[in-house]
Design goal:
The structure is a single chain. The chain contains 5 helices and 21 strands. By secondary structure, the protein is of the alpha/beta class. The protein has 2 domains: about 50 residues, no CATH class; about 220 residues, Single-stranded right-handed beta-helix, Pectin lyase-like (Pectate Lyase C-like). Helix 1 crosses helix 2. The longest helix has 22 residues. The radius of gyration is 33 Å and the shape is globular. The relative contact order is 0.06. The N terminus is likely disordered. Keywords: Calcium, Lyase, Secreted, Signal. One of its GO terms (molecular function) is pectate lyase activity. Pfam families: Pectate_lyase.
Length: about 350
């Protein structure tokens, strides 16, 4: 009991010493006196506990300070919070107007107090993706940014066109210099790019009857610009510069990316699964494409990973994982491939 002498030197300490001395004498302390000592003992233990944990909230019981809420990423960047038990939540929790202010404070748990029901609610009430049905193409004007805010844009029968793969309408038409970010899409003829473009955090879930994304050539540009109400004379005639990052292509019956015009294409941090081919130029056409593929993963590629028929096209591959396999790439000139071993010359070589 002398270890308790480490408590702060105040009146409670000396009162406690006298109480302990009295309790040590047999027969001099009644049961009632022992009960009267309990509040004093609890108060002193609370003081000791508070001195050990700076900033701990003192209550009439013993409190523990759990510190600020943890996040799922280092550095304090915004992220999904950890649910009770340290498991990351599957998605953002439904807002709780009654507990918002409480959640912003450090967690204080008092002895015998029930855990807040908000932790259970947060784990169960997870946002499902918003699905937006698209019955006519979404047009992103030249130089504009389309932020999908995490929604899924799903083609309806309104995009069927004539009912064949070549007449389907795209879910999104992007004008020159447009940016598309934070969305998923499915069906139709995917996304059509009229010129330079940047896609970030864009996910193709499932193709319609053809490809997932088209980089327009002259024929496509004429049709898409007319449909989108964009003056064809404002579309550059030079090669397009397209960057796609942090994105994915899944479940394509044929190719994921169709290249119909001269293009400089950079694919960085791409995931693809269950696709026929990743990127191809229009068969046998003299389309000059310079493709850089890096920091990406692929699996279940049915045919060639890349096919570029022009002998002027180039392919650079760096830090790519194809699920332990090395799918074939096809080029008009096999000498224009860097970073890949399984290369075959195109049977439809174009100038």
């Amino acid at each position: 009991m002398h270890a308790i002498q480490s408590a702060p030197p105040d009146g409670n300490r000396f009162g406690m010493d006298r109480a302990l001395e009295q309790s040590a004498a047999p027969g001099r302390q009644t049961l009632q006196d022992l009960f009267e000592m309990l509040p004093l003992l609890e108060a002193m233990l609370s003081r000791v506990f508070a001195s050990m944990i700076p900033g701990a909230k003192r209550t009439d019981g013993i409190s523990a300070h759990a510190g600020p809420a943890q996040t799922g990423q280092p550095g304090g960047s915004p992220s999904q919070p950890l649910a009770a038990g340290g498991r990351a939540q599957a998605g953002p929790a439904e807002p709780d107007p009654h507990g918002a202010a409480q959640a912003a404070q450090p967690l204080i748990r008092t002895r015998n107090a029930p855990a807040s029901p908000n932790a259970t609610t947060a784990a169960k009430n997870v946002h499902a993706p918003v699905v937006i049905n698209v019955d006519k193409p979404i047009v992103v004007g030249a130089g504009q940014t389309f932020d999908g805010h995490g929604a899924v844009y799903r083609a309806t029968s309104g995009l069927d066109g004539g009912g064949t793969p070549e007449t389907q309408l795209p879910v999104i038409i992007a004008g020159p210099g447009a940016t598309i970010k934070n969305c998923s899409y499915a069906g139709g003829d995917g996304i059509h790019l009229l010129g330079d473009a940047h896609l970030d955090n864009v996910h193709a879930i499932h193709s319609g009857k053809d490809d997932l994304l088209t980089i327009d050539g002259s024929v496509n540009k004429a049709a898409d610009s007319r449909f989108a109400g964009i003056d064809p004379s404002t579309i550059p005639t030079r090669a397009s510069h397209v960057v796609i990052s942090n994105s994915s292509f899944c479940n394509s019956e044929d190719k994921a990316i169709q290249i119909n015009g001269d293009t400089n294409l950079i694919l960085n941090r791409i995931r693809a699964n269950n696709i026929g081919q990743l990127a191809v130029t229009c068969g046998g056409k003299p389309i000059e494409a310079h493709l850089t593929l890096e920091n990406s993963t692929f699996c279940n590629v049915k045919y060639d990973l890349v096919r570029l028929d022009s002998c002027r096209s180039t392919l650079d591959i760096n830090n790519v994982d194809a699920g332990g396999q090395v799918p074939e790439v096809v080029l008009g000139d096999v000498r224009n491939v860097r970073g890949w071993s399984n290369v075959r010359g195109s049977p439809q070589t174009a100038s």
